[in-house]
Records
---
Amino acid sequence: MATDPTVSLKIRTSLGEYLKRDPAAILISQHLRDDLGLDSMAVIELLYRIEEAFDLQIPDQDLVGLTTVGHVVTYVEKRLGKSASPSAAKKPAKPAKPTKPKSTKKS
Amino acid sequence: MRSRVVVTGLGVVSPIGIGVGEFWKAALAGQSGISAITSFDPFPMDGYRSKVAGQVRDFSVERFLDNAYGDRVDRYAQFALVAAKEALADSSLQMTKENPHRVGVIVGAGMGGMVMGEREITQLYQHQKPHRVHPNFIPTITLNSASGIIAMAYGAKGPNLTISTACSSSAHALGQALHCIREGRADVVIVVGADASITPLVFAGFCSLRALSSKFNDQPEKASRPFDRLRDGFVMGEGAGALILESAAHAKKRKARVYAEIAGYAATSEAYHMVIPREDGLEVANTMKLALADAGLTPGQVDYINAHATSTSIGDAVEAKAIRQLFKSRADKIAISATKSLIGHTLGAAGAIGGIASVLALHTGQIHPTANYDDPDPACALAGLSRSAQERRVKVAMLNAFGFGSNNAAVVLKQATT
């Protein structure tokens, strides 16, 4: 499914700001925890930023499906009415390329 | 036999310098860190009676820390992290060689994470959007955020406590760390005092209490003047002080440089009034006496007092009276200085920063000046106060700290014996 480049860019920019990383290096396929090193609290902070960026409220029950960058993009598109597939956000992600987990919390 | 407790590392973030070297050089020169508050962006200072404070200028946590711990905490805890980092480096303590369960952290903080606290409260009330309250609001304003983040940054798994007794918080933190090590519950305790609440609401609150100086808004460096006849209230400050305390045996084993010994401590309550001290000074005198007894010393042995001395009319007079009561004729032979004359009242950080000045007096034989002690108030004249730096051998020092809620702390420090 094609994603809206504006939504995707905004989300990757939010992530980049939070992680202090170039948004261009953040891939749709990346897993928030395993690839980007976000712990559960960090995911909550990210979603808080995304709620602000898109003027959304994300209910608690929707959090569980949001585990990859792609999930978040699809979910936001759906909420904004831009997606062709309303159930896309709930689909499990295709496994991302295994990459070494990188911790953003410690250095 | 109970363990002796020594100080092996120091760190400071203050309005007159970040880092002990810069701080101490400025302190000995009597340099004032008090300046005008230009605005509480986005609104002007017009409505505030007091317009001056001891502000830490141009601070950004990234300049001092190469990790992300500072990103998730409020300004006061960032100060605490920076001071703790310096103190640990100064102590040469290597956490990789320590049993982490024997290293504790005790922080004194009076106000805590008020920068985020005020922002979030304001936004909630203005916009009435509960879902826009920041997810980090609770962990940030919880008063132990600094002690928690320091433990995480260094893997310190021993006792982790926060003492909040307003203006005496970190003097009590020093005392509690002394107990902790004496009783064998830790080998090392990272003691920090920190506060950063020169924020619109807190500052207004202290103005409303009529606690702050307001006569020297045009001459900020003159506003904090403990024991001087023209003093008219304290000047708010912000900052952090950190001291590494450890058992003398532990310090000896790792061949650490020892600055001084923490020899005694007392904590009392006046059980009197939320913000006003007892005018007779009896409880303050008693607190100092108890701390000396705890150290096994007598009033006749004290050479230096780092006074609480906030520059309020009644507070300074009561402390001077108490010093005279306890020390009698020796009161005029004791060197006394008021660190708040230089940096203002850093609230929860005051005990730790005063503690650092006391440690350095013991270690270097230099006593920093009391700025603006131009016209000694007869109600609190003590011969050992000076506008200039003093040099003398200090074998025993007393650190005083008193806090709202009617509480008193006194800590006795002495030269380290090898």
---
Amino acid sequence: MSRRLGRRGWRIFASAIILLSFVTGALAGPARVASINMCTDQLLLALADPEQIAGLGPYARDPRLSWSATEALRYPRLSGEAEDLLMLQPDLVLAGRYGKRATRDLLRAKAVPVAEFDVPRSIDDVKSQIRRAGDLVGHRERAEALIATIDEALSRTRAAASRRHDRVLTVSRRGWIAGGDSLTSSLLAAAGLSNAASDLGLPHGGFAALETIVASKPDLILIAEADPAAEDQGKALLLHPAIQRAYPPNKRLVIAEQLTMCGGPMLPAALDRLTAALDRIGH
Amino acid sequence: MRCGTTSQGRSCPRNCKRIKPSNMPLANRLGRRTRRLSASQETGRRHRSNSFGDGPAEGIVLKISLAAPGAAATLVVARAADRAVLPLLIGGVVLLFLVSLGVGAVRLPIGSVVAALFGFGGEIQQTIVQDIRLPRALLAMAIGAIHGLSGAALQGLLRNPLASPSLFGAPQAAAFGAVLVIATGLADVLSFALPFAAILMAFASVFVLIAVAGRNSSLLLLILAGLALSSLAGAATALALNLSANPFAALEISFWLLGSLEDRSFHHLALALPFIVCGGWLLLARRDAFRALSLGEETAQSLGVNVAGLRLQVIIGVALGVGAAVAVSGTIGFIGLMAPHLMRPLVGHDPGRLLWPSALAGAALLLAADIAVRIIPSSTGIKVGVLTALIGVPFFLYLIMRERRRLGGGLA
């Protein structure tokens, strides 16, 4: 009795699977999509069906870099090199436009389709990238929903925006300064702040000497951690007395790196974080 | 010169060579020194059953009589030069120190630099001069000095003009020690664990080197063993950083292998300076022993120098100084090779007299190199170790050529 029921159940299950794969094959985008860039990894995770994701890049699981690190654990980890992609033979590979040029060329030569994504330089860039990724994986509706969440967060930030128009310098390890022409700048502008990087002559970002940073005298600094630990020489710069003294906690905006590195599903959280940070230092 | 006695057999040719006209003042000074030493040792030695026989003492007496006649005139000239060398060097170091305070990414007029140094002027200027440039200049001075001093001490200990900490892999090993502590997450880069680990590794490397090559080994053996050790330590440093979870390993590797004084703070100075001072003191304290040692190990021993103890003290001194320096600046090479050589023509070949001038010359060299990396226009900061290697390696090659000629060897 139970055996017969079991067999019948199995048949229903099997036909459901066949039907489902038929439907996704016909309506949705490519069946298997891989990504080798940390930012496209996260777009893929946010927009594609779990069974569509064939593999993610090496940094997708790093919680310090990736907003979707825990989700990424469920999918195969790729090396980011051509070899395992050629073995995997996905229907589409998402990649960044910078770096790994040789890998992308090799994949194209072997007839693996590659979609390249630029580094987003503004919130609008992020929205159009989300739309494009949604179309590529065949889930326009998810893309639109995500964009709507971003717009809501954006209006919250604009409502709470600072009226003092403070100049903010984004300082990362080793004195790397996020340029004026960057997503961070766009986020700051939404909160009524301006990026001081242009005053340093770094419109596209770059390394600045500690002296230059101190001399440019920004009103606030934006850093990734409230209490950076000097775990290497690059990070020890953030603990230099010259910075510590001039920028006590009430002159620091703290937004984790994983929120500002890429544009995508983390953007609403990044905007909310910025609003909260402004609130905390009393703007 | 009698070279017949058994214990003198090996070192004798070297001693004979040392007494040539250009080295007369040294021989004379040594003669005076040793005469005093041997007089004080006389009673002690008489009671001790000594295995050296009368060979060494005879050698010294002979040397004095050889050195005495022609030396008087040269000695006067050398004395005058000697007296001028230290003040000149100190003046040079002070000058470079001030220039170092005046140079940086932000252009400040010299007047405002001086004002800011003494707590006047704008807040920003004070921060730049006091918090950023002052610790950097002080570190360059201390680290340069300890490298120069270590080089002079090692050259004195091994009686080998090509000895230097960086050719022996000590800084590279120290960097590996420091990186190991960071990569395993035991401590961060601003903790005292870092200089401790660096000092331990530096000690181990010099110890292993002298154990492997043997203490009376030829120049070639020491340098080959040193090359092997420094390559190994450099590779291990890079590997440790690659294996750590740090995604910015490449930049960190370049810091540890090439060295930099960029954006150091007083915190770094506090980490390194106590050890550098201790190491420097250990090395400077044995000036007389180096002098006696330059007559040969057996002779020094007969003069009451505990050669094994001296060797250990020098290794500890070098490890303390170089290890602590590397823990805050990364590997900066070749200062320890160049400084003693630049000073030798000025102060003569007495290894005891060479120590202070070498330290000052090392300080001046590193200050100058660190000024140069800030002046040379570049998109990203040039590492100071790059500059010292660019100058140091051709210098080293020149030294090898000179040594080859001096030893009468050729490629053919």
